[in-house]
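User: Can you predict the 3D structure of Sarcosine oxidase subunit beta? Sequence below.
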Amino acid sequence: MDDSDAAADRRVAVVGAGAVGLTAACDLADRGVDVTVYERETVAAASTGRAAGICYDAFAEDVDARVAARAAERFRAFSGRGDFAFEETPYVWFVTEPGAKADAIREQVDAMQRHGRDVERVDADDLAAEFPSLRTGDVVEAAVARDAAVVDTSAYAHLLADLAREAGVEIREQTPASVETDPVRVNGEAYDDVVVAAGAHTKQVLAGAGVSVPLKPYRVQALTANAPSEGLPTVYDATAGYYARPHPDGLLAGDGTEPFEADPDGYDRDGDDWFIDATEDRLRDRFPGYEPAVERAWAGLCTATPDRDPLLGELGDGLYVAAGWQGHGFMRAPATAEAIAEQVLGGDGVPAFDPTRFDGSESFEVVEGMAVE
Ligand SMILES: Cc1cc2nc3c(=O)[nH]c(=O)nc-3n(C[C@H](O)[C@H](O)[C@H](O)COP(=O)(O)OP(=O)(O)OC[C@H]3O[C@@H](n4cnc5c(N)ncnc54)[C@H](O)[C@@H]3O)c2cc1C
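Assistant: Sure. Here are the predicted structure tokens for Sarcosine oxidase subunit beta:
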């Protein structure tokens, strides 16, 4: 059966107009499906619009490396359309103490290279030579991923919304979805399939349909400030636990993760003073001579799962989930959304991310996604 047979007369609802839902909607419509997107707020209003927009393919697991490479390939194809640009920017990650995290970087780089990723270990002198504004004297282990970029995540979502509409998708903003099963319905309307890509609200939306998934939203923070210098890479200091990337305002830095479950309807959307103070100190320390002037600080939500892998696939008859990205949901969206769209039409999806590997009753701790261990 090819896609067009599977798509004929099919009506699919997508819950969530973030990067994942919009890409899936667009991919389904491009294959001939009649798609309606339900969005409780507006396009990119939740995590997608709050993300840092760091993209890389530096994943050590083979399935993750494959997914991320496909995502980068699609981002490049979208780049230059609308206001979206995939701005190639090396991604550097390092530790300043010997030990488990340093060992992990070495092992990760070996695995990434085996999967064909353009990643290499570098020493402190190489780093200083390539990125002179960085203080590197304390770096004990570091790596650079070359197939990496920074993007404007809202521009991506708006581009995909435009492409989806051109392909015939109806996007219903300000329309909260309530999902029911047997048969699948949204707000009482019957569909052949429903894809729940509701970000931090996914557990809630599915619970309303009587389906339990192990998913916990957790709060993370970011800020923008003036630039320390030209030609910055994206950096992640895995010892101190923060990242910084070049940004049109100068620099965007983040982390400030709270490792416990947040309420998606009640969390504080502003950056905390402690996060701003700590990030300013870290940036002063990492970029000698730099005095950060913070422009804006905010918080948003990521979603954790028990094994830190996504929940991507069919939960029951016609009911699909796409969530649980552990802070890496944007950079993988073009590939994870494509996989779920293909699965709706009879494809295999990504078997390693099959959500039925859990029954929803699992108890687990939130472990942030960027951790090197
Ligand atoms: C500060 C910060 C920095 C980040 N940095 C990065 C990064 O550099 N790289 C990266 O890859 N990821 C990053 N992330 C994570 C990234 O933002 C998410 O993984 C990604 O945006 C998830 O996209 P999504 O489409 O799954 O979810 P969302 O963008 O959250 O979209 C879900 C949508 O569903 C809607 N919705 C919810 N409930 C309902 C309902 N009942 N009915 C209808 N609509 C509903 C919401 O309003 C929302 O618009 C960051 C996140 C934050 C907060």
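The CA atoms of residues 150 and 187 lie 37 Å apart. The radius of gyration is 20 Å.
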